[in-house]
Design goal:
The chain is of the alpha+beta class. It has 2 domains: 185 residues, Fructose-1,6-Bisphosphatase, subunit A, domain 1 (Fructose-1,6-Bisphosphatase, Chain A, domain 1, 2-Layer Sandwich), CATH 3.30.540.10; 134 residues, D-Maltodextrin-Binding Protein, domain 2, CATH 3.40.190.80. The radius of gyration is 20 Å and the shape is globular. The protein binds 6-O-phosphono-beta-D-fructofuranose (F6P).
Length: 349
């Protein structure tokens, strides 16, 4: 028998006992975990349940075709938030914020099913969430959501993979990973306070967009590919799952850097990922695990959102390579192309 670690409920109770102001956020986390158990049941069944990956006639706020599971997941999580102290929800699957209990203290931004193009491939998918305190005086519901990610009171994601795990940070706490014991239907602590390695030679990027990238990103990836023969003087390896939660989970446990930069494709100048319910929660758990998350240069958590579905370039993971990417963006010596390449070989990292 595996060793039974502490339960999710016990962790939350302890956090609330230390700081009663976290009580409402803890209730939202319990609602996320309950919906995640239900989601796991659906994802586990896959095609036995039906055409979960089947496309519907509708598109979401991203213009992506909605899949049956996207819509089911949205209904499931919104239903769970109706039982929690949630004033309003912003979801990737809904163009406008949904008001639930206007007297409640928290606002939740959620991507109910991230990576849904992977459903039929049996690759890990997830739910990403961000919990914000509502503003005392807000000019309309959207205003509650237009706060920098630093204001998040809790955030994280659920990954539905070989294991279902909830990865989160609550209050000022470090990142925690709790894994679902499917037999018991409960989450138990799997990894307490993971620390992302400072150095890593593993990068994750959709390299098919190479020709669309700006010079700093191209130069960084060129230099990774040059390995020991280039200025980074180290062989690198690459991983890209096409599922943000899976790439994040891997980076939490074994380091690495993830990049979804802005590029020159129409509609991609700020990248693909959404600030409120993708970048902000990932940035919080990465920072609370000793990593860094930026838009290439600036910390993600300091960005004031311009709109609820705004996109942002996202670079996160091990502190050393993420810091290096910022230097490629800020110092022309780093991003200069041939014939300056020879000089880049001389730069001090
Ligand atoms: O936001 C959706 C998402 O599927 C992420 O999970 C993933 O990191 C990214 O998009 C993959 O994008 P692309 O298909 O452009 O590689």
């Amino acid at each position: 028998m595996p060793q039974i670690a502490g339960t999710f409920d016990a962790y939350l109770n302890q956090a609330v006992a230390l700081d009663a102001r976290l009580g409402a956020a803890a209730r939202v986390l319990l609602a996320v975990a309950a919906a995640a158990v239900e989601m796991t049941g659906l994802v586990d069944l896959g095609r036995l349940y039906g055409q979960l990956g089947a496309s519907l006639a509708s598109t979401n706020t991203d213009g992506d075709v909605q899949k049956e599971l996207d819509v089911l997941a949205n209904d499931m999580f919104v239903g769970a938030f109706r039982q929690a102290p949630v004033a309003a929800v912003v979801s990737e699957e809904m163009s406008e914020p949904l008001v639930l209990d206007s007297a409640a203290q928290l606002a939740v931004a959620i991507d109910p099913l991230d990576g849904s193009s992977n459903i039929d491939s049996n690759v890990s998918i997830g739910t990403i969430f961000s919990i914000l305190p509502v503003l005392a005086k807000a000019n309309g519901t959207e205003a509650h959501f237009l706060q920098p990610g630093r204001m998040q009171i809790a955030a994280g994601f659920v990954i539905y993979g070989p294991q279902t795990s909830i990865v989160f940070a609550l209050g000022n706490g470090q990142t925690q990973i709790f894994t679902l014991d499917r037999r018991a239907g409960r989450f138990y602590q799997a990894v307490s306070a993971p620390v992302i390695d400072r150095e890593s030679a593993e990068y994750a990027i959709n390299a098919s967009n190479y020709r669309h990238w700006e010079a700093p990103v191209r130069a960084f990836i060129d230099d990774c590919e040059q390995g020991t023969e280039g200025p980074l003087k180290r062989d690198h390896t690459m991983r890209w799952t096409g599922s943000l939660v899976a790439d994040t989970y891997r980076i939490l446990l074994r380091g690495g850097i993830f990049l979804y930069p802005g590029d020159q494709r129409a509609g991609y100048n700020h990248g693909r990922l959404r600030l409120l319910y993708e970048a902000n929660p990932i940035a919080l758990i990465v920072e609370r695990a000793a990593g860094i998350a930026t838009d290439g240069l600036h910390p993600i958590l300091d960005i004031v959102p311009s709109a609820i579905h705004a996109r942002v370039p996202l670079v996160f993971g091990s502190a050393a390579p993420v810091g290096l990417v910022a230097r490629y963006h800020s110092d022309p010596q780093f991003s200069a192309r041939a014939p300056l390449f020879g000089k880049r070989g001389l730069m001090r990292l």
